[in-house]
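pinned: reference chain
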Amino acid sequence: MAKQANFYEVKDRNFKTLEQYVPIVARVHGKHHPEFYEVLELFEIINKKVKEAGEEKPDLNQEFEQLRIITDNYTVPGDVCETYEAVYNMLAEADMAYHA
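pinned: its structure tokens
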């Protein structure tokens, strides 16, 4: 069985992409999926806390809990693009790795 990636491996692999994708998805899909504006805000908070924490593990429990609520546990809506889906998948992976 493959070892699950730790949070910092996931961060290193996905956060640069998320920094690019999340604002674009909010701009493209926010009108029809206003909850994504909250996803954008929470990702910005998470990203800031991670950067400020350096090598320490930041407290992201509240942000990930809110993301799970807002996204219905990262359920991808049926009328969105692959980039939207990729964002939810990367956020779900970060959430799972954070809580591992």
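why pinned: The chain has a mean pLDDT of 94. The two ends are 15 Å apart (CA to CA).
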